[in-house]
Amino acid sequence: MLNATVLPDIKAPKESFQVNSSLLIHPSVKTRFDPAEPRDKVELEEGAEEGAENAGGDPGYTEEEKSEAMVGTFPESSDFSIIYDYAQNYGKAIWAEETSVYSTDHGRDTLRKMGPSGASTIIRLVQKFPALEAVKIGKALLRNHIDHDLRYAIMTNSDRDSNIRHLMAIPLRDSDDVIRGAVEFTRTWNFSAPFPEDLFIGTVEDITFFANMVWRGADCRREVNTYRILGARFQELYVRPANWDNVLYKFMVLIKSQMNADRVHLFRMNHHDNIAVASVYDTGKFSKQGYHYDYSKEVTLPIKETFFRNIQYLDDSINVRHSSHAWIAQMGLDNKLPGPPVCNFLAMAFNEDWEGRACEVLLLVNSAGKDGFTQCEENVLRSLMSFCYSAMGTHYFRHRMSVTSRPLKLEEELFFKLCNENRADSVALGKLCDESFQPPEDFFTYDFYCAKYLVDDFALPGMLVFMLDTLFGPDGFHREKLMSFVLAVREGYRNIRYHTWPHGFHVAHCLFVILYTNANFLNILERKALMIAGVCHDLDHFGYNNSFTKRFSTAFDTLYTASHMEHHHIRETFRLMSSTENDILSGWSDGDKSQFAFLVKQAILATDQMTYFAEKNTLEHILHTKLDIDNADHRQRVMNLMMSSSDLVVSAKPWEIHRASTEDLYYEFHQQGDTERLYGDQPMPMMDRDNYPNMPKDQIGYLKHIVLPMFTLLATAIPNTAELVHGCVRNITAWEEEVARRERRPEEAAGANKEVQPSVQLTKPGKPKRLRRQRKKGNGGEQGDETPVQSEEESGGETS
Fold first, then answer.
1. 238: which DSSP letter?
2. Is the CATH code 3.30.450.40 the one for domain 237-402?
3. Phi-psi bin for 351: left (phi > 0), alpha (psi -120 to 50), beta?
4. For 490-512, what is the mean pLDDT?
5. CATH number 3.30.450.40 given to 5-226
6. Helix H segments across 537-631?
């Protein structure tokens, strides 16, 4: 006999990703194998046949070596332990002198001889060794009188092989019809009777059935164990949202460890462009930090030219078990997918879009087993995918809930006051508005200013209702709810310095003058939207601009992407109007309400000067060519220009009013600059309190380069608004004269008070004052006219 070659064991990587997910423990197995433990190289010296000779004994491994054997690389040792015990007892029943159990070793021309405790040794065998031949051809072999058969004259150099006379070799198949090993029954010269044919047939049936039953049970236990693992990690992956920071990575690692796959990729299907893009790409590398996934690498595969074309719905899957399969050969997957060559893969739909088509596909590449991914592993993957799909759907729902609830909570915190005046206030305002109102002499000009009317809390609301009645009649809005809405708008402005209720009133008044003097310029719905947008355009303004809210990551940065303050004003406007008491659109059709809301939104957004600068060139081109008022786009751009100009109308008012309003505006600027300094930032020059002496020069530049060109464009579109241009030029001249005076008297500029005090103070009144009616007493009691008077306490408040 020739010498048998006993190979040293294979050294496993220090950190192996091939983890046996079944964790099957048979009572006969005394030790379990830890895949995380390093495995030292085991060398068996040539001639150490003693362990191989003991068919049912220990093949030469120490207890330490047994405990360090790598699980998942070879078939489950516990399964072979059960088969080994059964084969030994069966061999005694059929008078076999020796029974050996072998397992395949990754498809190489080697068999691993199994021992009673699952330990094994690798023996390289010649091609004609009966057990290896049975594994190769996939058929059971009966060889009697093997000593006379020259084909088996040379096997190994062990004494056991030289005494073999009769032999049965039976391949072992699992539930996927994959050969996992072989059982060999032998008789030596001590028992000269050969194995009968009928005994051979019965033995093949019994051994094959039992092995198949063992592996079916192992598959079931593996699936049950998968559920056990998912149950153990349910709290981590499903219930506690705090652990969802890397939820996708955790699921990918879970799937990879349970499936013993070399690489796991998640592809997102783009059916419109016919491509599948790997949103999570597995590099196949492993370190102490864990598996390496590349979220930046984009691997793109065509859908129609690859296996993705056959994965259209959520239950679709493709399992390619060998590299010679036509799927890989025809598609050239090796050339399209980076990494090691593709030997086998399993693809399964992971998620579906709103049309019911697969939108995400999980691709597992190169199973640890030589025969690809088994049916059991496919079932396990389906269980994992169902859990992941359900858990990620729940997580997405929670994420959307948090995304939705957070803005709502922020809005509740940001909204200053949603005030509906009581019934008595609304009724009192309604009575005043029903009476004849004599407007001031300058009411229909741009010079009108409301400072002296702030003594009466109902003066400005009454004037606003008068403007709406003049333009649209008493039935333009719901009359009773209009009174409540106007009072609620007044209370919606904060008690700051410039962006207050009077400022909103002045913007609405400027729009009123433009619309009153150009009655046929816009349709009725557009005119109504402009008036409501004008009075509400700075609702709940708190004294800071968009630059501040963006630079310092305020809550507005979470709620809105651009024009933070303008979007906030829009939201608060619609919140007021959504109240039943303030529903001024009551009775309107849904189409009119929708169009009105759109126009109001566009008008308030136009008060952001960045919007004006973005549209300036286009508007200039339209005005210098031909303005078509019937064109919806032209009309919308002119409406935006009207809003932008009305927001800056104070720049065209008489000098004393303009100067006082500018002081109020700079007071807010300096408050913002002080806040920016607290955050460690350097404010802009106009926000810097130390730069206040340069305020006249800054105003000259602002009026010349921003306000005056804006008013000029408006006068080009609407010629009778040229008064705004003249007023702006007049104020520029006044600022230039003040600069000249300061240059003549530099000591005044040096002694200028940095803490700005406004000459005209525009403050929001506190609690609305009631109108007390004094009746003239006649002969029969209280009769006669009613005259509104105020008590000393009511008239002792701040006035401007």
1. I
2. yes
3. beta
4. 93
5. yes
6. 546-551, 555-559, 564-578, 590-605, 609-625
Q: What is the pLDDT of residues 46-97, one digit of tens each?
A: 333 333 333 333 334 344 333 333 333 334 557 788 888 889 999 988 888 8
Tens digit of pLDDT for each residue in 91-120?
Answer: 988 888 888 888 886 555 677 788 776 566
What backbone torsions phi and psi does residue 98 show, to the nearest 5 degrees? -150, 135
Rounded distance between C-alpha atoms, residue 405 and residue 343, angstroms: 49
Same fold, 237-402 and 423-750: no
Cα separation values, 617 from 611, 612, 624, 630, 637, Å: 12, 9, 11, 20, 11
Residues in CB range of 140: below 8 A, 6 or more apart:
134, 168, 169, 170, 171, 200, 204
Q: Where are the domains of the chain?
A: 5-226, 237-402, 423-750
368 in Cβ contact with 72 (< 8 Å): yes
502 assigned binding-site residue:
yes
Which pLDDT score, from 0 to 100, does residue 507 have?
96
Secondary structure E strands in 418-556: none
Q: How far apart are CA 493 and CA 584, in angstroms?
A: 19
Cα separation, 498 vs 542, in Å, equals 10
Find residue 103's DSSP bridge partners: 112, 181
Cα 99 to Cα 461: distance, rounded to the nearest angstrom: 105
Q: Is 500 annotated as a binding residue?
A: yes
Is 399 a known active-site residue?
A: no
- Bridge partners of 278, per DSSP, are 267
User: What's the rounded Cα separation, in Å, for the pair 415 and 573?
Assistant: 11
Known binding residue 503? Answer is: yes
The class (CATH top level) of 423-750 is mainly alpha
What's CA 438's distance to the chain center, in Å? 58
For 671, phi and psi rounded to 5 degrees? -65, -40
Token pair listed for 260: 């013993």
Concatenated DSSP letters of 666-724: HHHHHHHHHHHHHTT-PPPGGG-GGGGGGHHHHHHHHIIIIIHHHHHHHHHHSGGGHHH
Of the candidates 652, 695, 656, 657, which has an alpha carbon nearest to the alpha carbon of residue 673?
695
Active-site residue, from 166, 265, 499, 569 = 499
For 206, residues 6+ apart whose C-beta sits below 8 A from its C-beta are 90
Tell me if 746 is assigned to a ligand binding site.
no
Residues forming a β-bridge with 301:
276
Residues 6+ apart with CB under 8 A from 401: none
